[in-house]
UniProtKB/TrEMBL annotation:
<feature type="region of interest" description="Disordered">
    <location>
        <begin position="147"/>
        <end position="214"/>
    </location>
</feature>
<protein>
    <submittedName>
        <fullName>Uncharacterized protein</fullName>
    </submittedName>
</protein>
<feature type="region of interest" description="Disordered">
    <location>
        <begin position="392"/>
        <end position="417"/>
    </location>
</feature>
<feature type="compositionally biased region" description="Low complexity">
    <location>
        <begin position="147"/>
        <end position="175"/>
    </location>
</feature>
<feature type="compositionally biased region" description="Basic residues">
    <location>
        <begin position="203"/>
        <end position="212"/>
    </location>
</feature>
Length: 531
């Protein structure tokens, strides 16, 4: 079949229908509009507003579509004669055939102006309708196939098929465009495809092309496995969302860094990029740092698999303040012996900020002191402590009428600064913490002395996060412990045995001048880990 024969056959086919409904201003400067139709039999309408005009125009076009029969399979594009951009694109210097780009079934399409000034219905092929971005398909003609399956040379001329179209009964196979997919036409099932006609193309599924960015790196859309690509893109979105949070959540941040480290290691394996391994290591370090900060802020530390400890003093700052108070008392105890030092610790915590505080008899009677009245008298005589009455009056005082005490060495100087720099809210927390350690129930039941209670205080502020003695679990120097407890070196081992019996210490041993072991799990909450 020649190109001339094809064009001749199409010229004898039925031309597609087309009509346009327009909306124009009825008068200059007024709000009235005129609705007109390209069909000669339609009378223009004048409406008061543009909104009413658009409603009338759409209703008028819908009336035409309902009255008209559906698209005809034997019709060719109504837009071809008017040089739509699809057909203009086909016309080139090589004088290619006009209908060579048409394809798909005949449809009834509606095209409208974006400004709402005109609406057009036309009968054309599906390809020409798709060339208009605003086109809407109202109806589609049934696809058709050739009536014979012989060689191309023996097929009838297309013009003959067009002339015989009117004589065929309903449902008969009519002409169709060469690009129409035969799989969509029920009437063509079982009919062989003529020679020379290409098989219909099966549309390929569009591959997802997701992009993302994390750590100033673009996540490739073709990265495999796909689960890794999706994880990296999601992590990038989560990190950006975290930056918009009004308040930080260190636990969530640690989890994000852990996921990032794992994802970057897998990314490095599949891509072979060394820099990704370094980025994964940095993410692991950031995760550890964020988790440690979270534990310090909340007073929690890991104990075992999935377990945490809620510490009595929550936070690194308060732990350091506790060590500062104990170090100050070790240097400024006015009297020798463990009982005087233990008494100095408790009184210092009561009046740490201003040098003044309140004390009741029960606070003193709860301490393991041989003669509390005599000890208070000695402290007063040394000038380290000042009370308004006698020691006996202090021991008899009750909570409703406490005894005021004064420690001159703790009072602020002329510059307003004292030996401690923590706040008013921290002082009662530190005092409560020390009272909790010294007044431990099992230590009281074992009737342990002041030296044993001092050792318990010393060990509580010299542990690692998991409760091992020493910053890294390497143990504590025996000389430092005996100096703090005000005892001789050979007296330390009996004190350690007492703490072990009271379930305060576990796995304790004195070797090479160091005490090793760990705090019992029940007392981890009073520990103050070293940094």
């Amino acid at each position: 079949m020649t190109v001339e024969g094809t064009v001749s056959g199409l010229e004898e086919r039925v031309a597609g229908r087309a009509w346009t409904v327009r909306l124009d201003a009825a008068d200059r400067g007024g709000a009235t509009v005129r609705v007109s139709c390209s069909r000669p039999a339609c009378t223009p309408q004048v409406l008061p507003t543009a909104a009413a005009g658009r409603t009338a125009a759409v209703a008028h076009l819908a009336t035409h579509l309902r009255a008209a029969s559906g698209p005809r399979p034997e019709a060719y594009c109504a837009c071809r004669a008017e040089e739509c951009h699809t057909h203009v694109r086909d016309t080139g210097p090589r004088e290619r055939a006009v209908p060579s780009r048409c394809g798909g079934p005949v449809v009834m399409a509606v095209i409208n102006d974006r400004q709402g000034r005109w609406w057009r219905a036309l009968e054309c092929c599906a390809r020409c309708a798709a060339a208009h971005s605003c086109a809407k398909i109202v109806a589609t003609a049934p696809a058709a196939a050739p009536a014979t399956a012989g060689p191309v040379a023996t097929r009838p001329h297309p013009a003959a098929g067009a002339r015989a179209g009117a004589d065929r009964p309903a449902g008969a196979i009519g002409p169709h465009f060469s690009h129409a997919p035969s799989s969509t036409a029920p009437a063509t099932q079982g009919v062989p495809v003529p020679q020379g006609v290409p098989a219909p193309r099966t549309p390929r599924p569009r591959r997802s092309r997701r992009y993302g960015k994390i750590a100033q790196r673009i996540v490739p859309h073709d990265l495999h496995p796909v689960a890794l690509r999706d994880e990296l893109i999601e992590l990038g979105d989560l990190f950006r969302a975290y930056q918009q949070r009004p308040e930080p959540d260190l636990a969530e941040l640690a989890d994000l860094h852990s996921r990032k480290a794992k994802a970057f290691r897998i990314w490095a394996e599949v891509s072979g990029v060394t820099e990704l391994v370094l980025e994964a290591r940095r993410a692991e370090q950031a995760a550890d740092a964020a988790l440690l900060q979270h534990q310090q802020r909340t007073g929690q530390s890991p104990v075992g698999e999935g377990e945490v400890t809620n510490r009595l003093l929550p936070g690194l700052t308060q732990w350091e303040h506790a060590r500062t108070v104990l170090a100050h008392v070790a240097e400024h105890t006015p009297l020798p012996g463990p009982e005087a030092r233990l008494m100095a610790v408790m009184l210092t915590l009561r009046s740490a900020l201003t040098g003044t505080g309140n004390l009741v008899g029960q606070d003193v009677r709860g301490l393991p002191l041989t003669d509390p009245e005599e000890l208070i008298g000695r402290l007063v005589d040394s000038g380290w402590l000042s009370i308004p009455g006698t020691a006996d009056d202090l021991l008899e005082s009750r909570p409703e009428s406490p005894t005021p005490i004064t420690i001159p060495s703790l009072m602020p100087g002329e510059d307003g600064q004292g030996p401690f720099d923590f706040g008013r809210k921290t002082r009662p927390k530190l005092s409560g913490w020390a009272q909790r350690v010294v007044g431990d129930k099992k230590l009281r039941k074992k009737k342990t002395g002041a030296a044993t209670r001092l050792l318990a205080l010393a060990l509580a502020v010299r542990t690692s996060t998991d409760g091992r003695l020493g910053a890294d679990g390497e143990g504590i120097d025996v000389a430092a412990l005996t100096s703090w407890c005000a005892v001789e070196p050979d007296e330390l081992e009996p004190l350690v045995e007492q703490l072990t019996a009271a379930d305060w210490l576990a796995e304790a041993a004195v070797t090479d001048g160091r005490l090793t072991g760990r705090l019992a799990e029940r007392v981890l909450q009073v520990s103050c880990p070293l940094p």
